[in-house]
Write a structure and sequence with these properties.
Keywords: Membrane, Transmembrane, Transmembrane helix. The protein is mostly helical. The chain has five helices and two strands, in the order H-H-H-H-E-E-H. The protein has one domain.
């Protein structure tokens, strides 16, 4: 036989523990978001650092300005647009890849981030913004690795440019559709 349990006390106990569980879940989500933002900033910083000095619009460390409230939002937009254009110029000059599609990707990402500010569109646009953010990060990582493999680090050639550039010309634009 089950002991008599006050139903109000049981409901209060469950709700109290549910609140603690939700608080822990929120903290874990915020920590995950912070970690993802830091990893994204590191990818962008390293992508900027691998460019030759004449194509590099800013030092790589300036990405961390985007963590300053309000100013950071504007700086992030400027940074990714300049970085995308610089990577396209670098790949065109060093690897003879004419169009990477990187600047339109950055523009779509910025449009999604701006549309996230509209409350009625948020439910639709936030998942798209997250996907575009991931695509942009992956493309930046791939372009950086391709330039490093080509032997171009800090504007100095270390040999092996043609094989790495040919490999990059074949795989980078269609990185999602790899066979």
């Amino acid at each position: 036989m089950l002991p008599d349990v006050d139903s109000r006390a049981l409901v209060a106990f469950v709700l109290q523990n549910l609140e603690v569980l939700l608080n822990v879940l929120i903290v874990l989500l915020l920590l995950g978001k912070a970690l993802a933002l830091i990893c994204h900033a590191l990818v962008l910083q390293r992508a900027m650092d691998v460019l030759s000095p004449d194509n590099r619009p800013f030092p790589g460390l300036t990405i961390w300005i985007s963590f300053i409230p309000l100013l950071g939002c504007l700086w992030y937009v400027v940074y990714i647009l300049k970085l995308s254009a610089a990577i396209e110029r670098e790949l065109a000059r060093r690897c003879r890849i004419a169009d990477t599609g990187q600047t339109p990707t950055a523009l779509v990402l910025i449009a999604c981030l701006v549309l996230c500010l509209i409350p009625d569109l948020r439910l639709i646009v936030v998942p798209l913004a997250v996907v575009m953010w991931l695509v942009y990060s992956i493309k930046m990582l791939q372009y950086r690795r391709m330039l490093e493999a080509a032997g171009w680090v800090g504007g100095r050639s270390h040999g092996g440019e043609t094989a790495a550039c040919r490999m990059g010309a074949r795989t980078v634009p269609n990185f999602i559709l790899r066979r």
